[in-house]
Amino acid sequence: QGDVQTALSTSHYTFEGSMRSGAQEHFYLETNVCLAIPKGEDGEMEIIASTQHVDATQMFAAKALGVPGNRIVARVKRIGGGFGGKESRNFPLTTAVAVAAHKAKVPVRVMLDRNEDMMFSGMRHPFLSAYKVGCTIK
């Protein structure tokens, strides 16, 4: 909102520069965990996962199992502090657990320890931010 160029040109002082932020681990409180429970009828399955993207968890599992999405019930009991790290990085785990439960026809649960989780989940990307700010004397 407003005219940035005019505001900067009428400022008494302007400052500009850049700031780097390095890559960061997603160090959430609870590691990735998933429980897949086959329901025994028409490929139905219940998946309980620590995820911030439950609908994608459902759809990835459905695709891997070759069933419509409405046969997979995905739930989240708790996140345990996600901080964005459980948005999309858990799909390989939840999908593998769903396939294992489907093949074995028994519930399968996986909870990664901290070292496994950090190797598995990757990091946030580093950023370079450029800024220019102006201010007046008043």
Name a few traits of the molecule.
138 residues, alpha+beta, 4-stranded mixed beta sheet, two-stranded antiparallel sheet, 4 helices, 8 strands, elongated
Can you walk through the features of this model?
The chain is of the alpha+beta class and 138 residues long. Helices cover 29% and strands 30% of the residues. The chain has four helices and eight strands; from the N terminus they run H-E-E-E-E-H-E-H-E-H-E-E. The strands form three sheets. A four-stranded mixed β-sheet has the order 5-4-3-6, with helices on one face. A two-stranded antiparallel ribbon has the order 1-8. The chain has a two-stranded antiparallel sheet with strand order 2-7.
SS elements, strand count: 8
What's the end-to-end separation, in Å? Answer: 21 Å
3D shape: elongated
Content-based structural category: alpha+beta
Order of neighbouring strands in the sheet with most strands: 5-4-3-6
Order of helices and strands: HEEEEHEHEHEE
The major β-sheet equals:
4 strands, mixed
Q: Ranges with pLDDT <50 over ≥5 residues?
A: none
How confident overall, as mean pLDDT?
A: 92
Question: How many DSSP H or I helices?
Answer: 4
Portion of residues in beta strands equals 25-35%
**How much helical structure, as a percent, in the residues?**
25-40%
Radius of gyration over alpha carbons? 23 Å
